[in-house]
Amino acid sequence: MQSLKLQSLAWRSRPSLRFLPHHRRLSASVAAATAIQDDNLQNQVLVEGKASARAAILNRPNSLNALTSNMGIRLKKLYESWEDNADIGFVMMKVAVLDGITMGGGGGISVPGTFRIATDKTVFSTPEIHIGFHPDAAASFYLSHLTGYVGEYLALTGEKINGVDMLALGLATHYSMSARLSWIDERLAKLVTDDPSVLDSSLAQYGDVVYPDKQSIVHRLEAIDRCFSRETVEEIIDALEEEAARSNQDWCHRALKKLKEASPLSLKVSLRSIREGRYQTLDECLIREYRMSLHVISKEVSPDFCEGIRARLVEKDIEPKWDPPTLKHVSDDMVDHYFSPLGEFEPELKLPTHLREAFI
């Protein structure tokens, strides 16, 4: 099972979670249907507990571990229940284990964290531009803060990278072979301290030492910077074409193909989002991304999101009809709309910024 695990450490072991009893009588058929639905929802976010630790595991491998609203609600309830438990003296999401597909919301709930363990099964990507959307769930924060312009490269191409590359770029802090994770879990569960330096040294001790191979993204960072540091998407494509003609490297041709397949509007919106994220805090990025997402879903400017979902996920013909169809048809006013304030009947996202940690 490929999964993304979020592990919290506590001073004392937590009691097992229990479901609240039903207080209403339901017909047998309705009760059975509800039980099946509840069971499915519970299985989408699994809970493991050993010693002084609890782990919430995203478990939708056939859907790339994509987060649903119900999964988000369950995660929120789990962490609130652990925090409010009188038997627990310390609760904080400390370690994210990226043991499988890590995309979209999976990246959002893990990469901004303090410690992230990548494995030999890790596959990371931000492919939203291919469904007429934009890299969200904090992607405009953590991608924009990577070295050079590799964040723009990942955001605009949706290129997949492995766990070793995540570690090399700083998206992961530690690395472990997937087969060793149970052993690491057992040792982390025995820690009874909230000192990040102790956890850091423990993860370094338990983890594996790995080096990028010849195909690693780290070997083309200089070329990526030359191309993706350009001001506009059009200029980035021109630079890539020059790079491809000069070097004839596969990654250039692959990147050009992905750029030309993506929604033109999404490309321009996403580039601006990453550029703005470079000068914003995590909460500022989340508030802006929320605003952008509602504008996208509203279809006020373009139906690209619905069309991308149809072409990629529903009918799967992989032939989206983007509107606007080309980059030259995307106006500045169209892009500006996605960054404009929400209407009076749609409140802006409010976050508990007073709880923000200093480094973000």
From TrEMBL:
The keyword Phosphoprotein does not apply. Residues 54-94, 95-339 form the Enoyl-CoA hydratase/isomerase domain. One of its GO terms (biological process) is L-valine catabolic process. It holds the Pfam family ECH_2. Hydrolyzes 3-hydroxyisobutyryl-CoA (HIBYL-CoA), a saline catabolite. Has high activity toward isobutyryl-CoA. Could be an isobutyryl-CoA dehydrogenase that functions in valine catabolism. This is 3-hydroxyisobutyryl-CoA hydrolase. InterPro entries: ClpP/crotonase-like_dom_sf, ECH_dom, HIBYL-CoA-H. Its EC number is 3.1.2.4. Transmembrane segments: none annotated. Keywords: Hydrolase. Belongs to the enoyl-CoA hydratase/isomerase family. It comes from the Eukaryota. The lineage of its organism: Eukaryota, Viridiplantae, Streptophyta, Embryophyta, Tracheophyta.
